[in-house]
Recover the amino acids of this structure.
């Protein structure tokens, strides 16, 4: 992977900064999760290693993709802390849904669908017959963007299940 | 507040970039995955602490409700 620019790094850092502060407000202060500065750095490193490997594997043009970053950072953070309810995964999915609305004029997945994704994400590694992992979550949002980008007025929209 | 500074994060990124990769492979993707101008502007706006705080507040309220509904 070529080097990321300073602007790319600044953008990823800001994005992760928002996520960390939401985790802190929603989970740490309410005693749901314990977290240290080192845990954040470890999760960031794991996410960036996976990011580099993913780009190499699928020969994707180097870029900052906020959907990859939050999908993978959230997963690695959840994996490395005491988070029995895996609440961090719910926060990551909610954050991704919020980014989707920033990208596409308030279009978002429904609360029921967010819940469904969370229920499947919670099973990653323990019940892979029904679970989805970090790449699955990323793919859901990546597919939404692809669909909306290709949508043209008058197209037939397939109703969500 | 538990946080990771920009220099700390830059160190992480540069360290990862320095890891040699042996395998360049397999499935060519047609996707470029560039982000939209809208999302780029949003990410850039987060460097303003006022915007950052407001986004954290808004998103926190949203996820607190989700957590309440889930647990």
């Amino acid at each position: 992977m070529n080097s990321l620019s300073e602007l790319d790094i600044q953008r990823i850092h800001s994005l992760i900064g928002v996520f960390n502060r939401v985790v802190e407000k929603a989970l740490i202060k309410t005693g749901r999760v314990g977290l240290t500065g080192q845990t954040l750095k470890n999760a960031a490193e794991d996410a960036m290693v996976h990011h580099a490997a993913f780009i190499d594997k699928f020969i994707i043009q180097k870029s900052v993709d906020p959907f990859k970053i939050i999908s993978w950072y959230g997963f690695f953070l959840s994996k490395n802390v005491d988070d029995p309810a895996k609440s961090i995964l719910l926060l990551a999915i909610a954050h991704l849904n919020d980014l989707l609305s920033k990208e596409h004029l308030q279009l978002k997945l429904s609360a029921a669908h967010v819940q469904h994704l969370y229920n499947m994400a919670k099973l990653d590694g323990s019940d892979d017959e029904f679970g989805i992992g970090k790449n699955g979550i990323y793919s859901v949002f990546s597919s939404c963007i692809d669909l909306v980008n290709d949508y043209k007025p008058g197209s037939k929209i397939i109703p969500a299940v | 507040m538990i946080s990771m500074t920009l220099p700390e994060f830059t160190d992480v990124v540069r360290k990862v970039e320095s890891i040699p990769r042996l395998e360049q492979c397999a499935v060519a993707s047609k996707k470029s995955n560039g982000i939209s101008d809208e999302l780029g502007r949003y990410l850039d706006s987060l460097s303003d602490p006022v915007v950052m705080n407001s986004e954290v507040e808004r998103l926190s309220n949203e996820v607190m409700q989700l957590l309440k509904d889930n647990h």
